Amino acid sequence: MVMQSVALADRITLRPLNTPTIQIQCDHPQVPTDSANLAYQAVALLQERLPHRTNQKGGVEITIEKKIPVGAGLAGGSSNAAAVLFGLDILWDLGLTRVELQELGSELGSDVPFCLAGGCAIATGRGEEVNLLYKNNSLHAVLAKYNSLSVSTPWAYQTYREQFGHTYIPVDRFTSLEKRRARVHSGSMVQAIGKKQSQAIGSNLYNDLEKIVLPAHPKVALLKSTMTALAAQFNALGTLMSGSGPTLFTLSETPEQAQSMAKALRQSVSDSDLMVYTAPFTAHGIETLS
Q: What pLDDT, in 10s, does the model give residues 186-211?
């Protein structure tokens, strides 16, 4: 799969504690503040794998200020875990390399290694094998999600496997895993990205999980139809579901085009439950603010 970071981010604050405890505070009621949170698991993983470097560091208080919608298919939880790994490496002076952080992150979730890197990348395996494609692009995204609607990522993947099999790439006993991965890396989307052909990027947008999520959530399917029509009206590049959904996005070539389409979308769908964002592509992953 191809993954791209955008300028829509949570803010994570880490404060050292004298006692070896993990505390989480969050301004969103749907975000767990116990061991179910990937940010909590990131701390526990560092403590477990690096006891000789962490056992004298005490604990940490994690404050999460949510901007990324919850249960949206936008890797919000994974990016929080990545931020904690990145931040604690600095706070606790662990001296980990980016590769070491990504290897640890892959144990927490398939998207965590990419969240550490950011930019545009192709992810293979479960998503944990990240190969950067480029680090500069001027595209913008219009993102839309119904606030009250979320999709379980495990449900989406499990349902897909039950209906369509265990792999997204056609498999036969004569084709090696390496050849199948090479097929992904040489695909039309990757070629369009490498050549920075915006129109070709838009025409090659595709997400297998739409076959599962859209029929199960007609409201999302209708929203995609609306966004697709608006994309044509504003000469945008294309519309797709992000990850396991239910967030949808439309790609545009300028911030003005994105803002105009976002305004038109809010007017077309008069539903206070619909959240609409605009965000430019970014060339980075986790960043420190201080």
A: 589 999 998 889 999 999 999 999 99
CATH number at residue 154: 3.30.70.890
How would you label 204-219 residue by residue, b for 16+ Cβ within 10 Å and e otherwise? bbebebbebbbeebeb
Question: Which of 100, 133, 166 is the C-terminal boundary of a domain?
Answer: 133
Query: pTM for the complete prediction?
Result: 0.89
Domain boundary (93, 109, 133) is at 133
Structurally, the chain folds into a number of domains equal to: 2
Q: Can you give the residue range of the structural domain that contains 222?
A: 140-280
Say how many C-beta atoms besides its own lie within 10 A of residue 59's C-beta: 17
* Sequence-separated (6 or more) residues with CB below 8 Å from residue 241: 73, 207, 209, 210, 213, 214, 220, 224, 247, 248, 249
Q: 4 has which bridge partners?
A: 120
Q: What are the pLDDT digits (tens) for 109-166?
A: 989 999 999 999 998 776 667 888 876 678 999 999 999 999 998 999 999 999 988 6
